[in-house]
Amino acid sequence: MAMMEKIPAADIIQKIPGGKIFLATSEAVLKWGKSNSLWPMTFGLACCAFEMMAAGASRFDIDRFGSGVFRASPRQCDVMIVAGTICVKMNDCIKRLFAQMPEPKYVIAMGNCAISGGIFYHDTYSVTKGTDALGIPVDVYIPGCPPRPENLLLGIMKLQEKIRKEKHATK
């Protein structure tokens, strides 16, 4: 029985692709994990919802960013994507869904209507003038009418970047 040779750590590291050592704080690793496992709510209001659905299709593949698990229950979500025109009758529903989401929670306003009322700002009394008007804090704005799926992917990347840069809240 031959005795096992001691292999220096440098030899093992060279076998790892890239051959680099990765050093990080546990907080940075947790933030990286949180930012790459966002669970958006299935919540489309108007034409922007079609672009949100397209972002989940194979051509754009939102799963590459860890955000492909669209949930129907707000209790399982941490991202609300408000996609489309917010009618006044939906105000209470949106507020209730946002309140039911567990902390930490994030909001993406997708499309001109979700940001500021869009083309209906001056002509219609039944349209809310943006998600901010409901008292819901928006983390990322995605302009366009409707914005392309690539824009939603960019918005998700911006949200991931914001999550990675968050300061740890101590209470």
What do these coordinates show?
Helix 3 crosses helix 6 (149-165). The model has no long low-confidence stretch (mean pLDDT 83). 33% of the residues lie in helices and 8% in strands. The chain is built from 6 helices and 3 strands, in the order H-H-H-E-H-E-H-E-H. A 3-stranded parallel β-sheet has the order 1-2-3. With 171 residues, the protein is mainly alpha-helical. The N and C termini lie far apart (59 Å).
Which features characterize this protein?
single chain, 171 residues, mainly alpha, three-stranded parallel sheet, 33% helix
Which SSEs are present, and which pair or pack?
Elements: H1 9-15, H2 26-35, H3 48-55, E1 79-83, H4 91-100, E2 106-110, H5 112-116, E3 140-142, H6 149-165
Parallel strand pairs: 1-2, 2-3
Helix pairs in contact: 2-6, 3-6
Strand order of the largest sheet: 1-2-3
Q: How is the main sheet built?
A: 3 strands, parallel
What is the rounded distance between the termini?
59 Å
* Low-pLDDT residue intervals, each spanning 5 or more residues: none
Helix content: 25-40%
**DSSP E strands, number:** 3
- In terms of DSSP E residues, the strand content is 5-15%
Cα Rg: 21 Å
**Helix/strand/pairing category:** mainly alpha
Order of helices and strands: HHHEHEHEH
Q: How many individual helices?
A: 6
Shape: globular
User: What is the average per-residue confidence, as pLDDT, rounded to a whole number?
Assistant: 83
